[in-house]
Design brief:
Layout lengths: L11 H9 L3 H8 L4 E4 L11 H15 L8 H12 L4 H6 L12 H9 L2 H5 L10 H6 L2 H6 L7 H11 L5 E4 L5 H10 L5 E4 L12 E5 L4 H6 L1 H4 L7 H6 L7 H13 L2 E4 L6 H13 L11 E4 L5 H10 L9 H8 E2 L3 H21 L8 H20 L5 H21 L26 H4 L1 H17 L3 E3 L11 E4 L4 E7 L2 H9 L9 E5 L23 E5 H7 L3 H12 L2
Parallel strand pairs: 1-2, 1-5, 2-4, 3-4, 5-6, 6-7, 10-11, 11-12
Antiparallel strand pairs: 8-9, 9-10
Helix pairs in contact: 1-19, 2-19, 3-4, 3-6, 10-11, 10-19, 10-21, 15-16, 16-17, 19-20, 19-23, 20-23, 21-24
Length: 572
Amino acid sequence: MTAAPSASKITVRETLDLLDGPFRAVALGVAEDRYAFWLGSGISFGRVDGLKKIIHRVLEFLRQQIDGADAGCPFKDALERALTLAGLSRDEWVRVDYGSVFATWPDRDAIIGRLTNNYARLLDITVPGKPDDYLLWEGVDVRTTFASPAIEPDVEHLCVAMLVLEGSASDIATANWDGLVEKAISELTGNVPKLVVCVRSEDLRQAALVAQLIKFHGCAVLAANDESHYRPFLVGRFSQINRWAAAPENKAVIGRLTDIAVSKPTLMMGLSAQDSNIQALFASAEATMRWPWPGDRPSFVFSGDNVGADQEALLKNVYPNDYTAATRNQINGQSLIKAYANPLLMALLLSVICDKMKAMVDLVEGNLNDGGKQALKQGIVVLRNQLASADNGDRLDFVKSFADQASRTMTMFRDGSSGTAPRRYNPLTSSPLHHVAGDHSIPSSGLAETAVVAGILGIGVESGVWKLDGVDPSDPSEGVVRVSTATASTKMVLAANGRAAVRLQQNGHIVDDEDAVLVYSSEKPSAMPRSPRSSPGRTGHLGLREVSIYDLLQSATEAADLVQHFREEAAI
């Protein structure tokens, strides 16, 4: 039996298998915006400094401030307190050299390792005459480290942003100081406001948008831009963490976080939950309204390689009567998705879009029977899996390409124009999965028929009739995909209706005499005017073929008939 991949090695495709299998309820819960996302520093790993680099910076900062001529130098005293916190042995104390940069100390790694779980106490060390947060504000240099405009969003931030825009992540809580989730959403929307950022209680009074991001340990970006209001809310020191729950200025934010914790299941990504205020918050939420175990879906889910000690402590708090020796392993197993945030968020995004498209298949008008609809839904899953398998290792490039290609496809479909890069992300729908059935705009939008096209293409891929090739999004003459058989490769373009088709022609995306297929969601309109770009006379090519999915659905009852009629009209 092959061992399950580790959280760091698992692929997006393998993560989808988890979401289709033992964590199907979680995937559906995310698609329906039932889960609250709790995000930690792990989602920003590689973008902003982690604890080890921060500890190194603080110790070197103190060392640099030491005045060798001052026997009572307060900075030397502060550094000695930090080293005492690290529990140096007698031999290690002998090797301490305040005149040498910390990077050259022989015991550097050991010191950093011991301080990693004591970072809050390290930041709580004070220097006479300096503010209490001196080591955080100046030593860590939180403004440069976490709020620099040069720091770019990574895979995790972009995927969270797209899930927000898909209506599947309306409640997010984070201990992170960086502004990368906010920056990702701004980039994908062209700076259109979609996210309410809350740090202080007063921030909760902002007008509601698509999602709310509660930064309960503060925000470096806001602190850098408005120091007087937001610097005091940067939480990192031990005394702050212990006082956090009792601080009057935090009462409303804590109330909102508690409401989220009792009303929505929790999905933690990149968050170890080691801070005592996080543990206390969930214990308080449990006392307010307990989550049942077992329930309809896992109430607490962690992304990682194992359930750590801090996460196990949280499970003990939230399942006080159910977490026993007899159930411990079962609860731990149901609470752990063995995938880090990077592949998990990518898989969740693909899963959400796939589930929406499957729900749209049920909305199409026509005579297709239940078996035919089920076959189309399976075809959509095939396409999703093929896309996930296209991950070539450069996941940032993969995610950016996905966002760009998806947006280009949607704008061409709706408006007949591919737009220009960078394109705003166009969600399939801006509402969660369970709203699809009641969304009165979908039947007239052509989206349901586009889901049928995806199913048809997936059926063809699965049966080996054709394969699908990507296109160059920077080339206006390219379609949305190329359908390749053993004998030909055909460009395919989608149009919601006749107006979009005319604009596709006007914008040079289709030409009359080219070997291409124009697929309408709606009825096929009367003959399109010839493109001024087309060549006169015969060219020896098949020319542009027009196919109406709506018309095909009126006659086909089985998926096989639908695919066959599509192939005949498309001449593929």
